[in-house]
Amino acid sequence: MRKKNPSNRFESIQKLLLKLLVFVLPTQLAIHFWPDQSLVNGIRVDYLSIAIYLSDLVILAFVGHFFLLKTNRQLLAGFVKRNIYIVFFSTLLVLLNTFISQEPLIAFVRWLKIGEWGLLIFVLINLKIDVEKEIQTPLAISVLGIVAIGLIQVYLGRTIGGALYLLGERTFNVYTPGISLINFWGNSFLRMYSIFPHPNALGAYLLVLVPLFFVWLKKEQKLLNYLGLIGCFVGIIFAFSVNVYLSFVLTLITYFWIRHCERSLNCITIFVTTIVVTSLLLMITANQLIDLKYLFTESISNRLMLSRVGGLVFSQSPFLGIGLNNFLYFIPKYSSLTGFVWLLQPVHNMFIYLLVETGLIGLLVVFWTLIKFAKHLVINNRGVFLFIYILILMTGFNDHYWITIQQNIFLLALVFSLASKPNENASF
């Protein structure tokens, strides 16, 4: 019997771990540790816990396996050497941001998550296998699974329980305080949660996958891709996320404007600049908008109030920020102005969130990266990823899940790496 080539064995393990990673990506099964720093006014806050997710363990195995090869370790060393000034500056920024934070442990743990995110992107970009081909089947199966779970929950008006705990399903029903509901004809129905922490995060996750399934179907009409696409649409509908619906419409308009713009590079720069500047203006004008609260729902009013708090907190440390993942500690300090103490949530705008926690320096780094990446997408005619890019910025304008929720963060890593790999069939 012929022995299997070691390189083939290595590649087979890579493919298996990649498929497993994509399959478990939507789960939120985790071990949570609750140090004193994870409490605010004596209340445990999920955002502040130190959590090790099942997906973290798979990522660790996937990345660790990649670096078993000496050539891959040399690849990383070469990347660091070529970008030594950027690495040095980034490390210095992380250390300063952590040192000045109110709770350095929480900030440091969050920066470790960013490091994990970056390493995953590096590995995915440098894999020798066809990542898009390998992820289609497990991605479609996972979509069908989470949507099926969500539909059963909506029908029952509660979570399913049992073995689904192992996928991270929480326990709640339509009568649980704080659970998101939708009202039809005087009756309240559960919005689709599935195994996600919130329907908005689920809706955005599925919406980003729609363009991918659409393009994959153009290449090869596989039944699973059809089912995956249908599953995405069903999940998006039952998530009942207004932000997702509105962002999709605005993304369509913006995408076609940029694609038909004579100077596409200028247009994409204008778009990114506009959405970042508008976010900052929202932080400044939130106080005036709150006075018109009779025009807004309670949800929108709360988001405006969080933006207002963001502006007040930003003024305390404008250059380096208050420390990554430290915003929630400041909310009770402004209870006399906001009128609430228990709304312990991040700012529902990812640009304000980044500005407050990493300062002007951090936001400028993010802005520069966004512009550079957007130009890469336009120049290389990466149409489908340009659409997803716009979609992420649009949804991020009204929510924070792309930088706070495990599933969304690492879907972002997957999309970013796919967009960075050469592929001549990446346009609509």
Describe the structure.
This protein is mostly helical and 428 residues long. The chain folds into 2 domains: 303 residues, no CATH class; 108 residues, no CATH class. The protein is built from 16 helices and 6 strands. A two-stranded antiparallel ribbon has the order 1-4. Helix 7 runs antiparallel to helix 14 and helix 13 packs antiparallel against helix 14. The longest helix has 30 residues. The radius of gyration is 22 Å and the shape is globular. It starts with 5 loop residues before the first helix and ends in an 8-residue tail after the last helix. The mean pLDDT is 92.
Report the order of strands and helices.
HEEEEHHHHHEEHHHHHHHHHH
Percent of residues in β-strands: under 5%
Percent helix, as a range, is: 55-70%
- Number of beta-strand segments: 6
Q: Taking all residues together, what is the mean pLDDT? A: 92
Instruction: Give a short account of the largest sheet.
Output: 2 strands, antiparallel
Which stretches of 5+ consecutive residues score pLDDT under 50?
none
Write the layout of secondary structure elements.
Elements: H1 6-24, E1 30-33, E2 39-40, E3 43-44, E4 50-53, H2 54-66, H3 70-82, H4 84-100, H5 104-126, H6 131-156, E5 181-184, E6 187-190, H7 199-219, H8 223-239, H9 242-259, H10 264-290, H11 298-314, H12 335-338, H13 350-379, H14 383-397, H15 401-404, H16 406-420
Antiparallel strand pairs: 1-4, 2-3, 5-6
Helix pairs in contact: 1-2, 1-6, 2-5, 4-5, 5-16, 6-8, 7-8, 7-9, 7-14, 9-10, 9-14, 10-11, 10-13, 11-13, 13-14
